[in-house]
Amino acid sequence: MSGDFNDRESQDREKLRRMMRASGISAAVVIGFAAICGSVLWLFLYCRIEVPSGHIAVLTKKTGQELTNGMEIVSVAEFGNYKGIQEKVLTEGRYFYNPWSWSWDIVPQVEVPENRLGVRVRLYGDDLGYGNLIAENATQKGIAAEVLRPGRHAINAIVYEAGTKPKPNRDNFIELVELHEPVIVPAGFKGVVTLLSSPPAADPNQLIVETGKRGVQKQTHDPGVYYINPYVERISLVDCRSQRFNLGTGGEMGFPSRDGFWVKLDGRIEFRVDPERAAEVFVTYNDSVNDTGSDARVEEEIIQKIILPNARSFCRLRGSDHSGRDFILGEKRLKFQEDFQQTLEATCKTQGIEIVQALITRISPPQQIALPVRERQIALQMAERYEKEILQQDSEKQLRIEQELVKQKQALVEVDQEVITVTTEAKRQQEVAVIGANQRKKVAEVELMAAEDQAEAITAKGTADAEVIRFENQAVAAGWQKSVEAYGGSGDEFARWVMLKKLAPSFRAMMVNTSDSPLMNIFNEFSGISPMLSPTADKSDETETPATETPAAEMSVILPTDPNTTESGEKE
């Protein structure tokens, strides 16, 4: 009994241990599931970072190593290793970070509007070297060389317009973005490039420096839109279109003539800057006082420094070589005008200016000699006019004579043409008549030959027909001769045979009352011709009734037979 009790007790203890072990596992599972659910809930509610479209998340590390003295922010390479603002930002999306170690701030992305560009100013990094103005590397502090095009950029920065001060609304930004307008080079302009932060040129006293060196570049920009950093490069617009101005704009244009008279003139000059030498003209003649923004108004300097001095110099030097009356006469004035344009073109071309047209519109000669010279000139012109009228009348006279000669020649030509026409028509009619006569002759000859052939054919046919008739007659006569010879050469016998041959087919039978009837006497003379009568006699015998059966006074009916039947009763 005690042994059984001990076994039962041990079994109960084993069951109790199993129950306790099972309850522990279940509790652990429940606790683990609750921990997982709590972790997921805590992660989703407190660790989740939702970055909407058009925004970024700026991260700040709360734990980790302290920043060194040379560090303003934590670079991307050291992300998460140091405390402080991180250079790396989170773009649109969902992220999970531990709020005990991290803090974040959702801010809008940098947006550069249309027709704008953004200049980045980094507030962190290594200091620039001596004399450097632009941060060439991404690890340097200062103005970045590259610009931001219109659009959104995931950069932790504050945006502000150029010429204003930035107004930050937070203290965790690491860059500034300054908005500028792009440079637009219109049609007809050239953009002169000036590099502001490149290495200095070997010879800084040159007007145009080497390509890529600090200063004005020889290569210019064509019309278009250019997104350039205004701290790196400056574009000055030079108008290369045609410009026009009057010589009187700079004051009265005058000079003394060779004989001491004062001559005044006015004109219109059209010019333009040579596009290939726009940079040279800009550096040589530009005055910043006249500039409006990026528009370099070099045309004012060109007029005042190139065209007007050259025009005055030509007028005073060349004008003093002529007397006052030379400027009244047309030929001298025209020659002066041509020399003025040629000289001005050659002089300005060496300075990068193209003269499109240089026209003198008015020359005021001295009044003391203007009236006499004008009257003399009018008299000369009237004399030339009269001479021209005389020449014109002579020309008209000669023209009339030539016109009459032409008419006479035309009449002769018409008569000759008519004679030729009549002669040609007569010849044509003669040829037609000869051709017709020849044709009729040919036809008559052909008809004569045809008639002869036809006569020969008729004669041949008549001869042939006569021969046929003769041969037929000979054949018939020969037949008759043979037939007569068959009857012993007696023609009468042959004639009787022919008659009976014609009559026999017309009778089928003949019955008479007696053999000595007078009717039978007709055939007595033919009783000896058995061949002719045998068919009829046979038929009569076949149809004849015995004397005992037929009355003596009975007459038979003569039935005509088919005339086309032969002696045997068959048709031929």
Automatic annotation (TrEMBL):
Residues 545-554 have a biased composition (Low complexity). The chain crosses the membrane at residues 21-45. Its main location: membrane. Residues 197-377 form the Band domain. Signal peptide: none annotated. This is SPFH domain / Band 7 family protein. The keyword RNA-binding does not apply. One of its GO terms (cellular component) is plasma membrane. It is found in: Membrane. Residues 532-572 are annotated as: Disordered. Residues 562-572 have a biased composition (Polar residues). Residues 434-461 form a coiled coil. Belongs to the band 7/mec-2 family. It holds the Pfam family Band_7. It is a single-pass membrane protein. Keywords: Coiled coil, Membrane, Transmembrane, Transmembrane helix.
